[in-house]
C-alpha cells in the first residue's frame, strides 16, 4: 500500500464531496466518481445506453479534445496522492489522465471554477485499465477543488483524493467535534482492527451497520484493546459520545478516556473520563469535567468488541487552526 492511501479521501461523498460539472456523461454519471464504496459491476446488465457501469463514462470522441470533471472536495485540505481508479473498465478506459487543483472559497459555480487559477498536481500520465492508478503529489498547498482530465474519453470508476484535512476555522463553532475526520482528526495507533478500521468511528453521520465501525477480534488474555486519536486541533474537551449502535453481542463492557498534550513534551496520559460501563447498541454521552487541553486522546475498551462512533466535543485552539490555513 502506498503511504498516502491510508489518509482520508478528501473528495468522498462521505465528507460531502461532489461533482460540480462534467462536460460529458453519456454512458454513466460522473457522480459515481466520489462514492465512498468501491466500484461494483454486474456483467451483462444493460439499459438503453448499453452496459451499466458503476463509474463515469463518456461517449467515444469523434473530434479533437478531451473530457473533464470538476470535483468539489468534501473536506478541503493538502493532497498527498490520488487514485484514478478504472475498475471494471477494460476496453473503454482512458489511455491517460491528469489532475489539477484550485483553491476557491465559498460555493463557486462551474463558470467561476473554470475561470480560477489551476495548479497541476498530476501531469498527463498513462493509465491502466480495470485497476488503481496511484500518483503521489508533492505540492503541499491547501485545495478546495480538483479537475480530472481524461484523454481523450472513456470510463473512470472512482477518483480518490488522499490527503490531510484542513478546515477553515472561520466556519467552525467555538465547540465542535475535534475527533471528527472531516475536520482533520485521525487515528494514529491501534491495538487491533481485525474486523474494522477505527478510522470509521471518526466518519460523519450515524453508523449504518456493524461493518461501519471499529471491531476487534475476541481477546483470550487479560489485556484490553485501545486506539489513539490525534485531534483536529489541541482542545479542552467538554463531552464524549461513545456509540455502540449495532453492536449487541459484541459491544465492549466498559470504556475509559485519557489524553496528553504533545506540545508539552510529556508522555503522561491524564484521565479525561474514568472507566464507565457501556450498554450494547446504545449511543452514550458523558460530560467531561474540567481537564487540561490535549492534542491526543486514547480510548480504552474493556476487554474488546465494537464501537460505531467516537465523538469528542471540545473548545479548540483557534490559533492552531488559523496557522494550518496559512
From TrEMBL:
Key words of the record: Hydrolase, Purine metabolism
Domain Allantoicase residue range list: 16-165, 184-315
Keyword Phosphoprotein carried by entry: no
Protein name: Probable allantoicase
Major enzyme class: hydrolase
Organism of origin: Actinoplanes lutulentus
Pfam families, per the entry: Allantoicase
Pathway named in the protein's UniProt entry: Nitrogen metabolism; (S)-allantoin degradation; (S)-ureidoglycolate from allantoate (aminidohydrolase route): step 1/1
InterPro entries (UniProt xref): Allantoicase, Allantoicase_dom, Galactose-bd-like_sf
NCBIfam families reported for this sequence: allantoicase
Family annotation (PANTHER family): ALLANTOICASE, INACTIVE ALLANTOICASE-RELATED
Catalytic activity, as annotated: allantoate + H2O = (S)-ureidoglycolate + urea
GO BP terms, alphabetized: allantoin catabolic process; purine nucleobase metabolic process
EC number, UniProt record: 3.5.3.4
Gene3D superfamilies tied to this protein: Galactose-binding domain-like
Keyword field contains Hydrolase: yes
One term of GO molecular function: allantoicase activity
